[in-house]
Amino acid sequence: MASRVLIVLLAALVGVHAGGRTLVLLDNLAIKESHSVFFKSLADRGFDLTFKTADDSSLALIKYGEFLFEHLIIFAPSVEEFGGNLDTSALTEFIDGGGNILVAASSEIGEPIRELASECGVEFDEEKTAVIDHLNYDLADEGQHTLIVADPENLIDVKNIVGTKRDAPILFRGVGMVADTDNPLVLDVLTGSSTSYSFYPDEKVSEYPHAVGKNTLLVAALQARNNARVVFTGSLELFSDQFFTAAVQKAIAGAQKHDKSGNEAFALALSRWVFKEEGVLRGGVVKHHRKGEQEPPTAYTVMEEVVYSIVIEQLVNGKWVPFDANDVQLEFVRIDPFVRTTMQRKGGKFVAEFKLPDVYGVFQYRVDYNRLGYTHLFSTTQVSVRPFTHTQYERFIAAAYPYYASAFSMMFGLFVFSLVFLHHREDTKEKTE
Amino acid sequence: MTRGTTLLVFFALTVVGQALTPTTVLTGVDQARLKAVFENARPFTDLASAHYSILGLKLLGAQIPNTQDNCNYVKSAVDYQSPESLYYASSATKALGNCQLSSSSAQNTLQAAIKDGVDVPTLFFVVSALINLGLPVNSNEVVNALTEALKTDDSILSGSMALHIAAQLSKDADVKVIFESIEDLVAQADEVGEKYLQFEGDLGLTSFFVVGAYRLAGHQNKAPLIMEDQSVKFANYLLSRKHVQSPKNAYDVVAGLSTLANNKYHIPVCITRQSSMTVSSVQSKVQVRVSNVMSGALGKLTVKADSAERKEDGAVVLSNSALAANPRDNTLYELDFLKTKAGRGFYTIEFSVTADKPDSRLIGLSGAQVEVKVVTTVSVEEVELALEDKDQSTPPRVTKVQYPQKTGSNLAGDHHQNLVMKFLLKDKADNSAMEAHQAFVRLTNKRTKQEVIFVAEADDDHLYKFELDIGASAKEHFNSLSGLYAMDLVVGDALIQNPFAWNVADLQLKFPEDSATSEEKPNLYQPREEIQHMFREPEKRPPATVSTTFTALVLLPVLILLGLWIKLGVNIANFPLSLSAISFHIGLGSILVLYYLFFVQLNMFDTLKYLAILGTLTFLAGNRLLGSIANKRKQLLRSRLR
């Protein structure tokens, strides 16, 4: 019994770290049950889920200037207008404030979702359109070839976002997107195959489709500059219990049959990433000093050998553990970087040793670690570097030896001459006189 | 194929105006899944879920594993003081069979609970538990208490509980009022999209009501006041929730549906497509399952297809033809759809059912619709590939290509030319030209794998033509990247059985060079190039030999001086052995040594300090020395004069 209490206590302690308050907006409350596996997994991972319908008049993200939620799930594709105080500007404000959003759309996509997406650099196709792929559709398709079998190889190659286990294909039915090419922060998490396109399934293709080939985004992600994460998926069903447990087989002769789709693994990995359980870094103690010393000086002098170290930690299962990578770089910057060097990992710290440049001024040690799937780690430490004092220049220069020698020979001469001049006796003259 | 039909449920919320028969059933696969949900509830964490799990398995007709363990769990978890706990426990033990609760201790609690002012839920728990345990119930007393309780509580839950209570009382109890309340309760149900009927979006409540209403109707031997279409709508709602995952919800679905599959008054008939939606020459039969909501058989039936209508143009291809019963499975019926010579397209088939032995319980006998599509094989013909000069100066070179070969000649085009491709898609079934939803031309750069996709458009005669102005599209589509491109024709349609991506040719495209200024975007997420600081080179110095030579040269005058002096016979014979003379010369020498030390290590302030001491001493000693020398000279001069 005591051990059980202990386990509960431990779980509670871990729980404090993991999860967070999460608002789930639904089209109707039936979605809560049709997607129960997904929600249960979130709840088990310590998320505090609050379910509301998207047109609930009491919706609010901010109260008394504070965010009520850390994460937001919008599983309400067809919403025409959010209830309460929620609108596109409130949502973008939420993202600006560091909140994470997971949005799932469908072919019934409504205007608010499209607006939110375009704020984030993702353009959804029109309502009633669907991603169509006549060469990669599932056996269970209902005739329009809109139940897409997305190959795992079309996933972005970042394990933090899509997980490590990805052999089974992913079932997708919904609306397509394209990414704004001018927005470098949008990531193509899952794209359609090169034969896919997005159009009205019932209408003749009379104009160039919104998205064609590999440009057709099925799942897009964005990590804003403030590390807020937003994921857009064109398919709400991707997260459903039904797709989680469905078998997948492409409707072509001889296609391999998978008894279970890759949806569950993918959806859970995606949710781990978007809700900051995965790929979260933080910088710890920064130390810098001259080589062979322990404390930082008030100012460095040019050309000194210095040692810089920073502790970088990663959040793994709610705990901070030392981060492991071999591509963390240190820059020594005065407006432009003067030195950029790759740091070595030594016992949980990243260490760099280098020689200061022969230029003085106010410099910064800067670690700017920005990798796909990780939060942006940015740490700067300002130091001043001064020139040599007059005593620090070279003293005995070989080329100046003639000057030294002449000065000393003069001094020697003075000494000897004074002796001789004062005490010389002219013997011969005296004797002759 | 069962999955195909269940998928419908998701979009079904928005489907309006369908004929009122359930569009899906609880198939064998669904039942197996729900069974797994019940089995996965073990090990039990609370009495309620144990009760749902046991009853759910029983309803599905499944073997209840580890009966004795279940019994032990129920016995250990039951609270003999709580009617609710006793209700769950007694229902579970009753379902388990050989498992006995201590009825004497239960009886005291339960009998004591029937008193004035008791609320409906307690009454429901008490009556159900008493009946489950086989204990006597005073029906009149219960009816009175119930009537009292209902006066203050008119919620749907209480109303439904009242139905269950009444259904368990003895036949002679007067529950007419409660039976008639069914009509009022149904009136409070919410309808969604003319397809579903439910209470407050609550699965448990809806199912609980449906079970209660038919239970009481069976008890009273009177048809409940539920309209037939309402009954179907309840069934639709329950079926729409069949993907639930918790034991309670799963039990609600199973309990509600088994009531609708087996009662004395309303049994909705479900017609669902069992074969694939696709009808082709290979698979020309449409197979439908005619069953109750639990996919159980309904006895001998005659199933007819009333009509089949093409969605596109409303053409009716079939009317009033009977379906053949499948000899192996008495719920399956088949229709050879291609006998009708239906062309490609989406069709809606409407069915009607008549029972060979009239059965008034069956409802929703006509108007059931099933969708199928007739697909065809497509062939691509008359494919012509040409590169035309823009100024029409030379006649175009036309290459004919045969599917599925790739043209042998490598085509090379530059920005003065247009690439033209023409082709015809033919329906192999009747050899007529057709159009496909997807007829794209894909150009893939063989080196960068960059894809550029164009849409080929058909003219009025369904002849597809694709024209590409190589020069004009260079910048917009190709990023002015010259090179070898693979040209594919991608054809696909929902009605095409053989969609394909055919590599027609390899193209060597040449774009104007000057516009090739595409800058690669910097990748934000890569490690950046390392920077080594370039230290300034020190200035070049003369070689050491030069300075050594000159050092020797500057020391030379001293040597010369000394040499000459020796030659001249320099001496210091006049040196007076006085303190002042010695201290003056030592002082002078020390000052010079001090200068050397200043050069080597001392700073100016130390030097000045020492210099002050040495200087004073030397000054005084020097003064006396010079004075004594001057005196000596004076004496010498005087003695000479004398």
From TrEMBL, chain A:
The keyword DNA-binding does not apply. Belongs to the DDOST 48 kDa subunit family. Residues 21-274 form the OST48 N-terminal domain. Residues 1-18 form the signal peptide. It is found in: Endoplasmic reticulum membrane. Keywords: Endoplasmic reticulum, Membrane, Signal, Transmembrane, Transmembrane helix. Pfam families: OST48_MD, OST48_N. InterPro entries: DDOST_48_kDa_subunit, OST48_MD, OST48_N. One of its GO terms (cellular component) is oligosaccharyltransferase complex. The chain crosses the membrane at residues 401-422. Subunit of the oligosaccharyl transferase (OST) complex that catalyzes the initial transfer of a defined glycan (Glc(3)Man(9)GlcNAc(2) in eukaryotes) from the lipid carrier dolichol-pyrophosphate to an asparagine residue within an Asn-X-Ser/Thr consensus motif in nascent polypeptide chains, the first step in protein N-glycosylation. N-glycosylation occurs cotranslationally and the complex associates with the Sec61 complex at the channel-forming translocon complex that mediates protein translocation across the endoplasmic reticulum (ER). All subunits are required for a maximal enzyme activity. Residues 288-424 form the OST48 middle domain. The keyword Nucleotide-binding does not apply. Component of the oligosaccharyltransferase (OST) complex. This is Dolichyl-diphosphooligosaccharide--protein glycosyltransferase 48 kDa subunit. It comes from Branchiostoma belcheri (Amphioxus). GO terms for biological process: protein N-linked glycosylation via asparagine. It is a single-pass type I membrane protein. Pathway: Protein modification; protein glycosylation.
TrEMBL record, chain B:
Residues 382-509 form the Ribophorin II third domain. Pfam families: Ribophorin_II (PF05817), Ribophorin_II_2nd (PF23861), Ribophorin_II_3rd (PF23860), Ribophorin_II_C (PF25147). Residues 269-374 form the Ribophorin II second domain. Residues 535-633 form the Ribophorin II C-terminal domain. GO terms for cellular component: oligosaccharyltransferase complex. The chain crosses the membrane at residues 544-565, 577-598, 610-630. It is a multi-pass membrane protein. GO terms for biological process: protein N-linked glycosylation. It is found in: Endoplasmic reticulum membrane. The keyword NAD does not apply. Its main location: endoplasmic reticulum. Residues 27-261 form the Ribophorin II N-terminal domain. Keywords: Endoplasmic reticulum, Membrane, Signal, Transmembrane, Transmembrane helix. Component of the oligosaccharyltransferase (OST) complex. OST exists in two different complex forms which contain common core subunits RPN1, RPN2, OST48, OST4, DAD1 and TMEM258, either STT3A or STT3B as catalytic subunits, and form-specific accessory subunits. STT3A complex assembly occurs through the formation of 3 subcomplexes. Subcomplex 1 contains RPN1 and TMEM258, subcomplex 2 contains the STT3A-specific subunits STT3A, DC2/OSTC, and KCP2 as well as the core subunit OST4, and subcomplex 3 contains RPN2, DAD1, and OST48. Subunit of the oligosaccharyl transferase (OST) complex that catalyzes the initial transfer of a defined glycan (Glc(3)Man(9)GlcNAc(2) in eukaryotes) from the lipid carrier dolichol-pyrophosphate to an asparagine residue within an Asn-X-Ser/Thr consensus motif in nascent polypeptide chains, the first step in protein N-glycosylation. N-glycosylation occurs cotranslationally and the complex associates with the Sec61 complex at the channel-forming translocon complex that mediates protein translocation across the endoplasmic reticulum (ER). All subunits are required for a maximal enzyme activity. Belongs to the SWP1 family. This is Dolichyl-diphosphooligosaccharide--protein glycosyltransferase subunit 2. The gene is LOC109483069.
